[in-house]
Design a protein that fits this description.
Layout (H helix, E strand, L loop, with lengths): L1 E4 L2 E4 L11 E5 L6 H9 L5 E4 L3 E2 L2 E2 L5 H6 L2 E4 L11 H18 L12 H7 L1 H5 L10 H13 L5 E5 L7 H16 L3 E6 L2 H7 L2 E6 L2 E7 H6 L1 H8 L2
Parallel strand pairs: 3-9, 3-10, 7-8, 8-9
Antiparallel strand pairs: 1-2, 1-4, 5-6, 10-11
Bound molecules: adenosine-5'-triphosphate (ATP).
Adenosine-5'-triphosphate binds next to strand 2 and helix 1.
């Protein structure tokens, strides 16, 4: 696909696919076009997708609204970790239930492989959140807020979970906790598309990886293959 912000041509003939049930990483330097790719898939506008298509489970979803796309089972956890700072962890999770029930009443024409998790299931994935259930979200650590943002996404019916830089600003041992949680989510069969600056951490959990540079894919292959490709790593990832 080709995507633009106004006149700026950002994604240039970018082509990728994510297999059902896999963890796929999209890597690349600052400004390479990673977030733009996720927003294009999620139907967030801007950017404008002017050429090419986004398809999900065989349907063309290119011109659908974000609400429509989310009701088809695609959830995006943006870099900003959207949580309600003045509400407790539990209240944040409860609000996601409200949103989900509302979207169910609107009705949809597809069956979901991964219906939204209950609060109990979310707490199994993130025991830390249960410990902090009554704490205000705004007072959680960065890692805990990331867990809450992911947890809120999982309360929606999610067949494809897209995570934009989930490790950003987190200390190594917290990265490990978030990593374990992502692995647990993947074990449930939920497909994951992970955008990361931290290529080493992403390669640890991804089955396959794409590297994007200046809006185009410059590498596609298995994580092992990328690990062994010193030229691509040095040139585009700086690792
Ligand atoms: N709203 C916008 N309007 C105009 N240009 C934008 C907008 N958002 C992003 N861009 C530009 O699009 C290009 C790709 O940005 P994008 O956010 O997709 O990069 P990224 O790979 O996610 O980088 P980072 O890792 O720094 O988040 C950059 O040159 C950026 O300046």
């Amino acid at each position: 696909m080709d995507a633009y912000y106004g006149q700026s041509h950002i994604l240039r003939d970018l082509s990728m696919h994510v297999e059902e049930g896999e963890v796929c990483a999209l890597l690349g330097r600052n400004g390479a076009g990673k977030t733009t790719t996720l927003r294009s898939i999620a139907g967030a506008r801007p950017p404008d997708v002017r050429e090419g298509t986004v398809s999900f489970k065989g349907r063309n979803v290119t011109d659908r609204s974000t609400e429509d796309i989310s009701s088809l089972g695609i959830s995006l956890v943006p870099e900003e970790r959207r949580v309600f700072p003045n509400l407790s962890v539990e209240e944040n999770l409860h609000l996601s239930d409200v949103a989900r029930n509302w979207s169910n009443t609107v009705g949809r024409d597809v069956s979901m492989d991964h219906p939204g998790m209950s609060t109990e299931e979310v707490y199994e994935v993130f025991p830390r959140l249960e410990e902090r259930a009554s704490q205000k979200a705004g007072t959680l650590s960065g890692g805990e807020q990331q867990m809450l943002a992911i947890a809120r996404a999982l309360k929606q019916d999610t067949d494809l979970l897209m995570l934009d830089e989930p490790y950003e600003g987190l200390a190594p041992q917290i990265i490990q906790t978030v990593e374990n949680a992502i692995e647990r989510i993947a074990e449930t069969g939920t497909t994951i598309l992970l955008v990361e600056q931290n290529a080493v951490a992403a390669m640890n959990i991804a089955d396959r990886a794409y590297v994007v540079d200046q809006g185009s894919i410059v590498f596609a292959g298995g994580s092992e293959e990328l690990r062994g490709d010193e030229e691509i790593r040095e040139r585009y990832l700086g690792v």
